[in-house]
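User: Before I run my own analysis I want an independent prediction to cross-check against. Here's the chain; please return only the structure tokens and, at the end, one sentence I can use as a sanity check.
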Amino acid sequence: MKNIQPKAHSIRLVIMTILLITVFTRCEIQDNFEYQPSPTNPNLNMTAWEFIQERSDIMSTMAEAITRAAMQDYYSQEKGYTYILPRNNAWKKYLTANKYASVQEIPVEQLQSALKYHLVKGKVNFSNPDEFKNPNEPIAYQTENGSVMYLSRSTNYQGLINQGTKKQWTIITSNLEATNGTLHVVDDVVFLSQ
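Assistant: Structure tokens:
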């Protein structure tokens, strides 16, 4: 019996040694411990309308709304807008909240007004330090429907819509540069709620 314990101990020791050798020989030494950023290219090399059509996986309802409202020119002309683009799920929430079965049921005038609110006059880029020097300080911008949209950024440069009003929204993808303006993608059809 006493002979078995030293053998078991020896076997465990050999197994542990083999495991340690295996672990240490499989590890690689990292060349550089510093963060190496990779540049991102926000330039799309297409118009806002082309982007919407190309991204039908998330923008098909937006394309349908623009077509129904006969507003394709706003998204393809070289006017230099900031485009707030609601994704498909945003339109689904909007349709449900307003008791519409589809975009085709929304009165054209109402749809045009909603879409024109999503067109901000001028280009707004949230990573522009000259424009957004301080976080959480909304700046009023005119929209194509004549209303004001308040745009600001958080401390991590995430875009915010209508901060300081009754309802604000966070931009989920921002600062995409189309050939005719700046695009910001949202998860809601936005409106001004003072």
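Sanity check: The chain has a mean pLDDT of 88.
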